[in-house]
Amino acid sequence: MSVRYSLLAILDSGPRHGYGLKSEFDAATGNVWPLNVGQVYSTLSRLERDGLVLSDEDGDGQKIYRISDDGRRELQRWYEIPVEREVVPRQELAIKLVFAMRSSPERVREVVQQQRKATMASLQEFTRLKAAADEDGDLAWLMMLDALIFQADAEGRWLELCEARMADADPRSGEPSPPDRDHSAEAVRQAVRER
Amino acid sequence: MAILNLERVGHQYGSPPRHVVALDDVSLRVESGELLAIMGPSGSGKSTLLHVAGGLERPTSGRIALSGHDLGSLSQAELSLVLRRRVGFVFQHVSLLASLTAAENVSLPLELDGIRPRSAMKSARELLSTLGLDEVADRLPGQMSGGQQQRVAIARALIGGRSLLLADEPTGSLDSLSGEAVMRLLRGQCDGGSAVVLVTHDSRHAAWADRVVYLRDGRLVDELGPPAGPESVLRRERV
């Protein structure tokens, strides 16, 4: 994970205590991936071992960390090299769908519909945060939210396509249950006339 | 009272047996202050629903009320008046008049409604200013970006205090950032008490809505309510 580089990036703007690094990371990323303190200190000690970070003691005997020149070079490399995409990220949803497919078409539809709602609910949530965020012009936070929104959007589109494929494979499957629709439309007109 | 109320609305094109059912038993209420998104695959009846709701087409069956006025019981002249005063339309392809400035485009509906040009222009400028569009007020459409044009078109749809905006894919031909600006504007209008019905196939834009309904084969098949309470999945703590 990028904890290592995130800590270097924070230290690049000035020395910090271990706990300060944690809270700054959490705040900058909107608590989406909260770090535990243990993780911060174990990463710091590896960074220190590798000579990328140096530490001093402050007046209260607390360790304060700063980035070294090697650390700055390492950070620079991180920015320069594109992030490697996991070729096949393990997606619980895709796996669930594969097994639902082996079970029954109804189950697939059930999974798709439930998930589509959940995905839209997340999208609404992220969008509300975005709507509230703009005023203070925190671009980094907006871009983070955009990333979450586009990921959720991609999942939604994929689910939509799954649904369309299902309907395409079985022409009746997409229909909202067939007592013949003309008939029900006629019933509505009848009701209106009666009123 | 709901700004828009559809009760068991059906609409079909052609007559049996060669007819197409575009809407089938659709009931829907839109309250003031609400942004409602309608989603669904192509041909599911989204645009028909918008046309019927805005009185552009009369439904084959069912009842539609705008702020309590039953559209079916109005004469053509009364219907035109109610629609002109209360409903604004926005479409994917912006149809601003190319030879008029933004402010002139926005003031036009008022002038057509008998308001003096000077007073209409004053209202148009005020509205553009409220919507953060002062800088384009004196520009011709050709001198604006697509997103700015669409926002001016929304201003034109809102002028005169129209309280219901029906928007058919208003972000369809815009890039992501311009689309977001349009959605912010629509969201702001709803927060100010208007109501917007938005047809879109883009979940990112539907996500600005309070409520999302899904249409398929002319029927409402699913609905997603307003986002859950204030507990956010993400909590922001400021540095």
Can you describe this structure?
The complex is a heterodimer of chains A (195) and B (239). Chain A has 195 residues and is mostly helical. Chain A has 2 domains: 3-80, Arc Repressor Mutant, subunit A (Orthogonal Bundle), CATH 1.10.10.10; 92-176. Chain A is 67% helix and 6% strand. Chain A has 8 helices and 3 strands, in the order αβααββααααα. Chain B has one domain (4-224): P-loop containing nucleotide triphosphate hydrolases (Rossmann fold, 3-Layer(aba) Sandwich), CATH 3.40.50. Chain B has a 6-stranded mixed beta sheet with strand order 6-7-8-3-9-10, with helices on both faces. In chain B, strands 2-1-4-5 form a 4-stranded antiparallel beta sheet, with helices on one face. Residues 229-239 of chain B have low confidence and may be disordered. Chain A binds chain B through residues 23-24, 26-28, 30-32, 113, 116-117, 119-129, 131, 134, 141, 149-150, 152-153, 156-157, 160, 164, 174-176, 181-182, 184-185, 188-189, 191-192, and chain B through 8, 10, 12, 16, 19, 21, 24-25, 41, 60-63, 184, 187, 202-204, 206-209, 212, 216-219, 221-222, 224, 227-228, 232-239.
List its salient traits.
heterodimer; A: 195 residues; mainly alpha; Arc Repressor Mutant, subunit A; 2 domains; three-stranded antiparallel β-sheet; 8 helices; 67% helix; B: 239 residues; alpha/beta; Rossmann fold; six-stranded mixed β-sheet; four-stranded antiparallel β-sheet; 7 helices; 25% strand; globular; disordered C terminus
Which regions of chain B are unreliable across 5 or more consecutive residues at pLDDT < 50? Answer: 229-239
Question: Main β-sheet of chain B: number of strands, strand sense, barrel status?
Answer: 6 strands, mixed
CATH topology of chain B: Rossmann fold
Helix content of chain B: 25-40%
